[in-house]
Design a protein that fits this description.
Number of domains: 1
Number of strands: 4
Oligomer: single chain
Strand order of the largest sheet: 1-2
Strand content: under 5%
Low-confidence stretches: 1-16, 18-40, 146-150
Distance between the termini: 10 Å
Length: 309
């Protein structure tokens, strides 16, 4: 499993296998649409970006640029550190391998260093505080729809609601539903005439896709980083996106924006091969798996969380 956790931060470098499928930060979709609601363009979104640029970019530029420079990552590592502040935010938030689910307990930018001592690195108390503050601002932006401040009377914070939804979802997935949905179709999906399993069969580059069920199912059901590629937490009510944050509206959705953005090579995924997500066998399978998993959640038949990280 440790090999797979390390793979979650290694995503670009091999000839013919560059880039990865990662969470992207799109603009706010219209009410009723699906996909990651993103941060929009309101005051909360701007506060999150400013916090990253002013307080966090300098940290990763100092500690991480040696291996993770976007202009030339070392070996098979992720190039999440842009060479200038103007590009830094879009580059960093474009990689789920760095931001995860944006919670301070589920974002690799935090836990890879504080818990796993990645490359012997450490954060000062001040650096940890700056990163946590930024992540919480990202969640606040996602919880506020149009960018207004989320409600202050909520029982759960956006981070707590996200953590709850992710854990619940992992317990609602089943191998039987995974097989019935034909999720292994992802292994045969093509990007520039190369099957996805060629580069991602065992979880390489932070994405898993294979035409056999192992380790595909195990990774997306037990590892929150791999899960985040296929599913993301929606914190707002799409029918009322400007309303204050209400934890009961938090739910898991298909991460449509992720695959669309990478398939069309939107920044920072310019080196990834083109592929069409809409109408593909991968989309059909993922939608079926989502529907059956949500049915289990609605019926209250889920098991305990399966997460190992």
């Amino acid at each position: 499993m440790r090999t797979h956790l390390l793979a979650a931060i290694t995503m670009a470098g091999l000839v013919g296998c560059v880039g990865g499928i990662d969470q992207t930060i799109p603009s706010q979709p219209p009410p009723g649409s699906t996909g990651d609601p993103g941060t929009g363009n309101g005051s909360a979104a701007q506060a999150a970006r400013t916090s990253f640029e002013d307080n966090v970019y300098g940290i990763i530029d100092t500690k991480c640029v040696g291996c993770h420079n976007s202009a030339g990552p070392v070996g098979n590592t992720t190039g999440f550190v842009a060479g200038n502040k103007a590009d830094a935010y879009v580059t960093a938030t474009g990689y789920a391998a760095l931001v995860g689910d944006f919670t301070p307990t589920g974002a690799p930018i935090m836990i890879k260093v504080t818990k796993e001592m990645h490359k012997g690195l450490s954060y000062t108390t001040d650096e940890q505080s700056k990163i946590s503050d930024w992540l919480n601002l990202e969640l606040a932006a996602r919880a506020s729809g149009s960018g207004s401040n989320p409600g202050s009377g909520a029982v759960e914070s956006p981070a707590q609601a996200t953590e709850r939804v992710v854990k619940e979802w992992s317990g609602c997935m089943t191998k039987a539903n995974f097989d019935t949905a034909n999720m292994v179709a992802w292994g045969n999906m093509q990007a520039n005439n190369s099957a996805c399993r060629t580069c991602h069969g065992n979880g390489e580059y932070g994405q898993v896709a294979n035409n056999t069920d192992a380790p595909f199912y195990n990774l997306i059901s037990s590892n929150r980083y791999y899960m985040a590629i296929y599913f993301s937490v929606q914190l707002i009510d799409p029918a009322n996106p400007t309303a204050p944050f209400d934890p009961k509206n938090a739910k898991m959705i298909v991460n449509t924006k992720s695959f669309t953005a990478v398939g069309t090579r939107q920044p920072p995924h310019g080196e990834h091969g083109n592929f069409t997500y809409q109408g593909s066998q991968g989309q059909i399978a993922l939608d079926k798996f989502y529907t059956s998993t949500m049915a289990a959640k609605t019926a209250g038949t889920c098991g305990p969380p399966q997460l190992t990280n």
